[in-house]
Please model this.
Amino acid sequence: MRIKANPGGFKEGRFIFEAGKNYEIPDRRSYVVSHGWATELPDDDPEPFETVTLGQMTPHAPLAPAADVTLSVQDSVHITAGDVGVLDLSGGV
Amino acid sequence: MGKRVNTALLDLTLDGVKTGSGSVGPCNKMVVCSAEPTTYTEANATYMLANVAMSGTDFTIAAGDGAGTTPRKVTSGAKSGITVSNSGTATHVAWIDSANSILLEVTTCTSQALTSGNTVNVPAWKMELGAPT
Model:
């Protein structure tokens, strides 16, 4: 499926559809959509385009679930007080 | 003008995770969450996908990896085969103190879909405390 899409509606690098966005934008840049991912097409691509909205497409899905998966966890580094959220311990949160 | 902190003072905070300090801690449960929890209830219930019991022996306090920048750290050991209680996408991991209903520490993880009844592994991760700046 080919669509007209707003490049600003995608994240850079690997383009990820964002919920609530309408990808029908007169920017006229073209993308190929497959399983929620998009890649840019050459301007002279002869194929016709189809204008769609997010509701018609499969949104980006996270990694497929597996029976036994291992998370990739980032360390928590407290450099300054401004770098972390401060938890309010009063009232037993 | 320099600013300094005694590493023993930093360790008091890390001890709060490992052994408990005052009315805070120790951490007795690690929780995998579907969103960033900001309260104990959110970590332990609202966003909880999987959890595993923790004890003091699961934590190691040592010199930080950032030398003078992060003088001290506490590392939680890896936990494998944790049963997924609720389906969802894991985005955060937290240490909690269920005895005192306290959310102790929250970190992030790469988004990963989890399915109830399956298992999840959490590798070792650490909380590092920085020097004053």
Summary: The helical segments of chain B are 7-18, 40-46. The first helix of chain B runs from residue 7 to 18. Chain B has a mean pLDDT of 92.
